[in-house]
C-alpha cells in the first residue's frame, strides 16, 4: 500500500534513504538453484555508481553489496533473498540552512505535504540512492531470464539535448558496445553511436561548466523473449514495463515500438505484417512497429522501449524558491550532482525491465505452464 | 496474477469477452454512503458506446448497466459493488473462415502463443469491449473524488494525424466544452479547439472512406487534487497513472507535464519555481512543466497527461497475414470498426485516471490520515 | 483491501448480498483448457442450497449459476471466469420492525459500527448467501487439482452437539459415503458413521422443535496432494487453510492433524516417524499426527483439518437485545433458518480447501516448476 | 507469492535463515510521526531471545536490532522501515552427518520436496529464528495501536501438558503479571496463575531431564479495540488473526471466544446478549463467548484467542528416521533446544496479533474513515 514493493511472482521490496545507514532489498520469488555471487551483483552496481567518470556526479560511494539471505553454497535457495548496501559517503555537516527550503524540481514540498515532516539531510527516500538496490535485484532478474530462456536486456542512451544517436538496429546493440569503445576505453556516455557519443559528452561537459544540467532519452531493448508473456487486461506487459520505467526518478515519458510516432500514422502503414519463417515454421512480423507486444502480450519480436529523462533538478547555480513558511528564498546546490542523469540511468532502466520480464515469466509458468499436456493431447487428437 | 484486477484500496476486478454473455466489474473498497444510481453510470457509458456518431463504429450496443450489489437505498454500503453490462449485438454467424487467421495489429497470435487456444469469434478478452465496465467503475471513482475533495478529471482529443489542437490552458477545459459545441450540437470528436475539431472530423471521415484508420493523442487533466497523493518509490502516482493508461488498448506512449519535450531542455529552463500565494499562504509553482507531480507525489498543481493512440488495426481493406499453420493469407475486416479510436478513448482515459486518483486518495487516508493529531500537536509544541 | 478477494494465483473476488439482485464471483488465474460446464457447478451448489432436506432451512432458492465469461466451447480460456447466481427467494415485506434491531450473534451491530449504515433486510453482505459463489468457485478448483495431480477434497460432519462420529480412517471416506447411504437414500446430515448420523439427525430435529439450534464440527480431508505445496513463512499452507476456513461464517476454531490434542503430548510420542516405501522409494510417515503438513509445507500425506461451527444465531424463540438507540428490545426470528449449519457447511468447507490447494499448486508451478532441469542436471552430475 | 510478506496496509516482508548473516524485516505502511527507538525494539526481543531462563534453550543470541531506514530524529518518516538482526551464535562445525537426514517433525523433507535442495546447517528459513524480526515488527505495531486508540495486546501461557491455568478474566491480565511475580522475580513460564506456573515449570524441567519436550497452549487478549475492524467476507478479522497465529511455527490449532466449546452448545445458551451502557449509551454484550468478533468484525469487546503449540520436535533422545536416499537412520539432536516452546511463544503471538490489528486499523482508516462527514450530516438530517 505504501508502494515499496514491485512485482508479483518476482517481487522486490526496498527500504533505505540517502543519509541513513543503508539501502536493502528483499527479493521474494527467486526460484531455487540459480547461481549467484556478490561478484555478479557488483557488475551492474559499478555501472550505476557515482564517480565512475568525469560526466557523472563525483560523489564517492562504494556501493558494496552484502547478501543477507537466500543463497547457500553459491546458489539461491528459493527463500527470500535480501541484499544490503550500506551508505558510506554521507558527509556529516550542518543542514539547518536547507532544513525548510523547497528545492525546485525535487520532492521536498510533496513530502512535507504528504507526511508532515521529512528527513531534510538530502532526498531521503526520494533520493536516487534507492535505485542501487533495484540494480542489484535487476542482476538477479537478468540471470534468471538468461538461464530460463536466453533473454537479454540492453539499454543505451539515444539522445542528450539535441544530439540524437543513429542506431539502425536496436536489437543488435550489445552490452559490450554500450560499455566499451573499440579502443578498449570506457564508453562513458553509454551511447553505441560513437560519433553521437562524443557530441553528447561535449554537451554534458558544457552544461556542467555552465552550472546547468541537460535532459535526454534512453532506449531499452529486450531480446530472446518468448511469445505469450503479459496479461490481457490490466497487467499488459506494456503497462507493467511503463510503470517500471516511470517509477524511476526523473522519467517524464515512456513509449514503445513506434510510440508517439503512431499519432500521425494510418492503420495501413502502421500494422506490422505477420509472416511465417519458412524453415522453422515460426511466426513473426516483417517489421516491428509494435515493439514486441500486441494486446499487451509479447509476440516473440524484440521489445523496444524509450524513456524521456528530465535534466537534473539540483543545480550549482542560484534558483528562486520558497521556504516552508512561504518566505521567498534562493538555493544553490553544492556540487557533486550529475550534469546529465542518462549514463547512470542505463543500468537502472535495464534492471527494471529485467524485473518485469522475470516477474511475467514466473507468472506465465504458474498459469500457462499447466494443462499443457492436456492441450497438446487434445490438439493431437483432433 | 492473471491481471484482471487494478488498484489497491479502490480495486476493480473485471471479466468478460466481446462475444460472451457480458462484462462484469467488481469494485472493492468503495466507502459507504456514496450516492450512486444506474443513471449516473449511463452518462459516461453513453460517451463510450459504439454508434454514438458518424465518426465512430456503427455497431449498436446498448451498454445498459445493472448494479448487482453494494448499493442500498441509493447509496453505497461499503461492501463490494458489482456492475454487469450484457452484450447484445453479437451477430451470430459462421466464424470458420477467420478461426485460424492472425489479424495484423491484434492479439490473436499473442493469445494463441499464451493460452494454446482462444475464443476466435472476435477479440475475446482482448476486445475493447472490456473497457465498458472500466468506464462504469470510473464513474464511481469520479463521484468519490468529487465528493471527498472536489477533484475532477477531464480528457479531450488533442491530436488526430497531423491536426493538432491549440489548447492554451488544459486545466480550464470543461466537460461541457468537450461534449458540446456552443450551438448545442455534440462535439463528436471531443476536441475543445473547434476549428481543429472540424479538421479532425474531416480527416477521420477521409480515412473511413479510404478504408483506412488514423492515430491520435488525448490529453487528460485532473484538477482539485490535493498535494501528497502517491508513494515515493514504486507506486509513484506518475507510475500508476502511466500503467492505467497503457493498460488501455492501442496506447503506445504516455507522458506528463513537459513530457518528451524535457529531452532537449536544460535544468535551468526546466525547473518550475515554487511560490507562495500571498493571501492563502499556499505553496504552488509558477509554471507546471512538472505536470502536477514531483517525486511521484502530487503537488496540488493540475495533473496533465498525454497518451498516444495507434490507428485502429481492423481495416476494411485487404491486409496480408498468415494462418496459425503459417500458411499465407489475406484478411479484410468486415465493417463497423472505428476509423479513429480517439473520440471513444476520452471517457476510457478519464475513467482510468479517476480510478488511480480514488485509489491513491484512499491509500493516503489509510496511511497519512493517521497520527495527524500527534503531528499537529508536536508542531504546535515547537 | 476491503477483503472481497481470496487467493493469489487462483484468486476469487466476490460480490453480492442476501436481498440484492444476486451474487457473483470472478475467478482469476484459471489455466486455459480445463473442461467446465454449468452442470459441473450445479453438483456442489445442490449440496449447499437451502431446502435440500428436512434438517436444513426450508427457504427455496434455486441457486442457478450462469457462466458470464472465461469459458469457450466447454473449456476455460485462461481469462477471468465470472459466475452469477441470482437471488430468487427474497420475500418482499416490511422490514421497518427490525431495521434498527441488533440480532444476537449476528453482524448487525458490527456493520453499523463499521459502515455507519447497512442493508437491514437481512444479513446483507454478512449473510451466508455469499457462500454460494464460493462453492461454485470451489468446483473449478476441485476440477483443476483433480486434473493436474489427482487431488481430491472430501468433508463430512464429525460431531453435532455431544454426538461424535467414529471415523477410523479419514482419508478413506468417499464423497459417495458422505452423500448417500447404502440403501441409496441421501445421507442428509453428511456423516459417514451412519449410526452417529441417525443420532445427529435426531438431535437436530429435537433442537428444531425446541426453537433452538445446535453446534458441531466438520472434518475436511485432502488426498493425492503432492509434497512441496505451501510457503515457509507467512503463507504456510496450514495458515492459508485456516484463514480459508475461518473466513466461513460461524467458524470459531480450526485445527489440523492431532490439533489441540498436542497440548498434552510429549515430543517423543508426538513426532511422526519418517519411513521409505521399500518398493517405490517414496518417503512418508508411519503415522499422520502432523496432518499432512510440516513447516507449513505439504508432505504428501493426507491433509486432515477440523472446524468448529457455532449453533445458528437466528432462533425462532424470543431473545433479548437492544436497538441502535440503545433501547432494550426482544427479537424472535421468523422461521426458515437452519437448526444446524453443519450439513450445508460441508460443501463450503470443501470449496475453500480446494481453492487453497489450487492456489498453492499454481504458485508452486510458478516458483518451483522452474530451474528443475538445472537442478536435475546438477544432481545427476554429482 | 512466495509468502514472505504479511499484511496489506501495515505490511511486513522478511528474509533470513538460522545460519546466514542475519534476519531482516521491511515494514511498509507505518504512518509518519510515530516515536521509535532501538530501545523500544529490545524490550520484546529480550522476551523472545534464547537463554533467558533455565526452561528455554540455552543458545546465546544477542538479538541486537539495527534500524536501517524509516526513522529520523526518533520518529518514523512514513517510508519503509527496515530492521536487521544479525546472527551471532552459529557455531561453525561439520554438518556432513546430518546433511541428508530428515529430522522428525521438521521441515527438512518438505523443503527438499519443494526446492530440490536446502541449507542443511539448521532449519534455514524454517527455523524459528525468523520470528525475531516478526517480534521487532510487532513492537512497531503495538506502539501504533496504543498511540492511535489505546489498544493493547497481552498473551500468556494457559496450559502446559495437563497443567491448566485458572484465569478468570483474560482481559484483566497485565503484561506485568505475565513477566514478573509479585516478589519481583521473573515469571519465567509467563503464566499469570502462579500456582499453575510453578507446576508448569516443574513439568517442563521434568521433560527436559527426560530428554523430551512438552506441548501447551497460549491465550492472547487484545483490549481497547474499537468496534468495526475487519472485513465482511474473506478478510474477516478472525480469519486474519488465525492465519497470523498459524503462520508461527508449531501451531496446530487456533480458536477464539468459546472456540471448540461451541460444538456442544445450543444457540440459546451460546448467543451473547447485547446491552447498552446506561451512562455512555455504548453498546456491548453481557458475556463474551463471541471473543470480540461478530461477522468477522470487532464489536469493541475484548478479543480472546487461544493457540495450541506442539512439543518441540528436536529431542536429545534417539529418534528413528530416514535419509534422503530412503535409507533408515537414527537421529539425536544435540542440546540447546527448548523443552517447551510456550514461554518464548508468548511475545511472538502478541506480535502477530498486534500486526493484524495495526493492519486492519489502517485499512479501516482508508476505507471507513471517509465520507464520515457525509454520513454524520445525513444522519443529522433525518
From TrEMBL, chains A, B, C, D:
* Catalytic activity as recorded in UniProt: 5-O-(1-carboxyvinyl)-3-phosphoshikimate = chorismate + phosphate
Sorted alphabetically, the Gene Ontology BP terms of this entry are:
amino acid biosynthetic process; aromatic amino acid family biosynthetic process; chorismate biosynthetic process
The entry's cellular-component GO terms read: cytosol
Pfam families hit by this protein: Chorismate_synt
How many cofactors are bound and how? Reduced FMN (FMNH(2)).
Which cofactor names does the annotation list? FMNH2
Enzyme class comes to: lyase
Q: Does this entry carry the keyword NADP?
A: yes
* Pathway named in the protein's UniProt entry: Metabolic intermediate biosynthesis; chorismate biosynthesis; chorismate from D-erythrose 4-phosphate and phosphoenolpyruvate: step 7/7
> What are the protein's UniProt keywords?
Amino-acid biosynthesis, Aromatic amino acid biosynthesis, FAD, Flavoprotein, FMN, Lyase, NADP
Q: Where does FMN bind?
A: 125-127, 295, 310-314, 336
The molecular function terms in GO held by this entry are: chorismate synthase activity; FMN binding
Q: Give the record's subunit note.
A: Homotetramer.
Please describe what this protein does: This reaction introduces a second double bond into the aromatic ring system.
Q: Which family does it belong to?
A: Belongs to the chorismate synthase family.
The molecule here is called: Chorismate synthase
Gene of this entry: aroC
